[in-house]
């Protein structure tokens, strides 16, 4: 039967059974080595999970080029990459090229801090640094979300750089790490070859709240792009329409839609993914316009948010010199995508056009007394809850939601 792009090739269980039936020889955990390129949250999650299985794992700091051996006791001690980085514990280091050269499986999970279009060349450069050190019969797992045809470009690059044939004597798998909760969507893996039992066992338990679906590479690209556009298809219209709504509309809208539950943080969550889809498209088409429109929604909202704050300054007769703006936005600084860091910098810059004193609060609510009137911009639901639970002095909270709720505390 001919497969459609929405039809999984095999389930993990079927793959595992097929591997055993074909007599694939399992490696001993003591001799198997895995490398994870990128000291990101996603990379550390993969590395620590595999390490606790008793397998030798090297996680590579792509900024320094050094590989760190992640032993099971270390992985169990540090639950996040942030705590792992901050600790001064003596660790085992080796050059990253040696770690990749010795690895049977290499996960590509870089920290991306460039903006588009520079991000694309930055990713390709890092990917080239990895593949030139890979050996025959090894596998690379590409976790960066891509647009259409990018994985085939990666495969061509691998074959040109290594002289090996992907699917025969070197292996490539596409496993995009979602920016959206894994509980919403199944995890997908695109591949040109059969998944062997070793790789299946490495992934076992990595996504406990998600089913893993195995697809061909093109189908994996299609499905992931559909997911991202579907995610924005539900949000972008709300953010765009509410910009034109009168205040009286808010109470009526709340009866039908939970617009107050959507924040700037949600709007930015897939911005990287939108840009990578757009970079893979050429010419003008309905799809190109759709992707560009969703990207524009993010930029338009930042502009709308700062303009509304300017209006609030006039409404309360607040002078710029007597006002402090605090951006309350808690997010993971070590995630692969750097969109939140970019957007918060852009928001901070725009706010400085109207308020000279602008600060970021990105970990906990710790407001101190000030002679200035404080405007607190809450950029996520979690940040708003922290502010609500810690009332101190009189401040004005601006919820970075479609309706920009104003709440004096």
Protein architecture, described:
The chain is of the alpha/beta class and 409 residues long. The protein has 2 domains: 10-215, Rossmann fold, CATH 3.40.50; 247-408, Rossmann fold, CATH 3.40.50. It has 15 helices and 15 strands. The protein has helices at 12-22, 41-51, 72-77, 81-86, 96-102, 118-131, 150-162, 197-203, 217-242, 248-253, 264-268, 271-279, 286-315, 339-351, 381-388; strands spanning 10-11, 33-37, 56-61, 66-69, 93-95, 105-108, 139-142, 171-174, 187-191, 212-215, 323-328, 357-361, 373-378, 395-399, 406-408. A 10-stranded mixed beta sheet has the order 1-10-9-8-7-6-2-3-4-5, with helices on both faces. Strand 11 (323-328), helix 14 and strand 12 form a beta-alpha-beta unit. Helix 9 (217-242) packs parallel to helix 13. It is globular, with a radius of gyration of 24 Å.
Quick overview:
The protein is an alpha/beta fold and 409 residues long.
Shape: globular
Task: Give the terminus-to-terminus CA distance.
Answer: 63 Å
User: How are the strands of the largest sheet arranged?
Assistant: 1-10-9-8-7-6-2-3-4-5
Percent of residues in helices comes to 40-55%
| Low-confidence sequence ranges | 1-11, 13-27
- Overall structural domain count: 2
CATH architecture of the largest domain: 3-Layer(aba) Sandwich
List keywords for this structure.
409 residues; alpha/beta; Rossmann fold; 2 domains; ten-stranded mixed β-sheet; 15 helices; disordered N terminus
